[in-house]
Amino acid sequence: MTRVKADQGRRRRILGGAVCGLVAACAGLALAELASAAVRPESSPITAVGGAVVDRTPVGVKEWAIREFGTADKLLLALGITVVLGAVAALAGVLAVRHLPAGIALAGGFGLVGALAALSRPEATWRDALPSLVGGLAAAGVLYLLVRALTGPRPVGAPPGGAWSMDRRGFGRLVAATLAASAGIGYAGRRLGAYGSAGATASRADLVLPEPAVPAPPVPPGADLRVPGISRFITPNRDFYRVDTALVVPRVDADTWRLRIHGDGVSHPLEFGLRDLLARPLVEHDITLCCVSNEVGGPYAGNARWLGVRLADLLREAGVRPPSQGGPADQLVARSVDGMTIGSPVETVMDGRDALLAVGMNGEPLPFAHGFPVRMVVPGLYGYVSACKWLRELQLTTFAAYDAYWVRRSWAQQAPVKTQSRIDTPRPSAEPEEGRVAVAGVAWAQHRGISRVEVRVDAGPWHEARLGAADGNDTWRQWVWEWEAAPGRHTLEVRATDGTGAVQTGVRTGTVPDGATGWHSVSVRVRPGPGRKA
Asked: Which residues are within 8 A (CB) of 372 and not within 5 positions of it... i.e. 6 or more apart?
């Protein structure tokens, strides 16, 4: 009986220690959230650790996460970090019950990990370490108090042989009070953080975009084939893909935003705010963007109507000359407010194409998730070498002197978009009925255009598809081919020819280092029509 009671007491101490650790972690995270409201949202421990994990994750793992989870990869990462934190917190509590200094050291050490992660982020300052340090100290202090309450001197009159220094009801009240206080502090931190971003929200809501000096022509009749299941010709903002490393979307106040242009070959450095930018002649242009992480047939491409200032005009005003005209800089490094760096070829952005500092997307100010207040858009280049969001600085340098964020992680320095085509309908594993089936999708080769799309069935002869009307060379084109489908299993393939006459290669390669290649294929099973046996 004595041994049974001892085992029960041991289990209760372990359970109590785990509860102490988890409650202490909640308190630490709440205080860290409050502290991050005074620094910046990116400095909160989970966000800082998540960003550091993204920075150090191997390319193959990142590609797998993007492929499997899409934009939900950030949420899953945050949840994973929270689970790990909970496990470490519970371990710290159990350890503290047995050896209080060791448990407290483990709890505080996790705050140190968060501080180091915050300091490792691009453009970090010493202030970014403060929320994690505050959270770690708070967690250690709360853990000490809870464990002392759990294992300290037994109250007078308490029955012997138990695992608790205070009665369970009293300990439960203490835990509940600590959790309630933590919830209140965390809520205050969130509210203060929201208050800090209220100016950004108001600045976007109040922004009225000027009419463009050079408006885009209307989308040509016939550009949108209106085939059921095909991607819309203009992608709505809510559906436009998002691939970046920001666990927390930066919310920049347009009223205080500034952009600086400087560096090699800049004879007249420029600095201006959003109102200055909007006072310049604005141009409107339909441009398809594509992420280099987009696998063959993948979803990370979208077409939008962008409004902005021609980047080449600003660079010339700053005295920049492209390398072909003797300029010393061949790379334009764009820096985001979250520290991201993206390098673009100077020659490309100044070769006459409509490379923009965009302020509008589909008739409204940029959404926060897509770079408000200003981002870069360069037709013909993958986003990781052109499409910097939340822009704050442009620096002229050379590819030999500086490697941008993704280049340091095994991606190519320069990456023009490759010719790609995609079958949107029928979907993989679809079961259409025999007879005429519309095979349709989109194809793109930005700044070269699409001149031809072909489809084949079961590796047979290629059949030319009907193209939607072209809206310039910088957007995708819809296509459709009417297939007389016979019952059975079939594989459909598509390939495109760009405006220069180059046919899309069928050689399959992965996305690293400069974009995927290959023909998209879809397997379907055609069902017999009514009255016919399967």
From this structure: 200, 204, 251, 252, 254, 365, 366, 390
The CA angle 211-212-213, to the nearest 5 degrees, is 120
Q: Dihedral sign, CA of 472, 476, 478, 481?
A: positive
In angstroms, what is the C-alpha Rg of the chain?
Answer: 29
Round to whole Å and give the CA distance between 305 and 59: 31
Return the DSSP state at 254.
T
| Contact (Cβ atoms closer than 8 angstroms) between residue 522 and residue 428 | yes
Q: Is residue 169 within a helix (H) or strand (E), and if so which, with residue range?
A: helix 168-206
What average pLDDT is seen over the chain?
90
Distance CA 286, CA 342 (A): 22
Q: Which candidate, 326, 322, 376, places its Cα nearest to that of 350?
A: 322
Residue 228: how many CA atoms within 13 Å on its side-chain side?
A: 3
Which alpha helices (H) appear in 207-281, and where do they start and end?
274-278
Strand partners, 270: 261
Position 197, amino acid: S
Pairing of strands 270-273, 258-263: antiparallel
Which among 221, 189, 90 has a CA at the least distance from the CA of 143? 90
Structure tokens at 427: 């979907």
Residue with tokens 């308190």: 27
What distances in angstroms separate CA 110 from CA 25, 45, 458, one per listed residue? Answer: 10, 9, 56
CA 165, CA 512: separation in Å to the nearest integer? 59
d(CA 133, CA 140) in angstroms, rounded, equals 11
* Contact indicator for 381, 417 with CB cutoff of 8 Å: yes
Please name which of 22, 414, 364 lies closest in space to residue 206, comparing C-alpha atoms.
364
pLDDT, tens digit, for every residue of 457-499?
999 999 999 999 999 999 999 999 999 999 999 999 999 999 9
Residue 157 neighbours by CB distance under 10 Å:
5
Give me the DSSP letters along 109-129. Answer: HHHHHHHHHHHHSTT--GGGG
Sign of torsion over alpha carbons 269, 274, 276, 282: positive
pLDDT at 336: 95
With vertex at residue 338, the alpha carbon angle to CA 286 and CA 414, rounded to the nearest 5 degrees, is 55
Tens-place pLDDT, residues 135-184 = 999 999 999 989 888 876 554 444 444 444 556 777 788 888 888 988 88
Could you give the percent of the chain with pLDDT greater than 70? 92
Q: How many CB atoms lie within 10 A of CB 467?
A: 19
Give dist(CA 290, CA 145) in Å, integer: 54
Nearby residues of 381 by Cβ (< 8 Å), 6 or more positions away: 344, 345, 348, 387, 415, 416, 417, 446
Q: What is the pTM of this model?
A: 0.85
pLDDT tens digit string along 102-147? Answer: 989 988 888 898 899 888 877 778 888 999 999 999 999 999 989 8
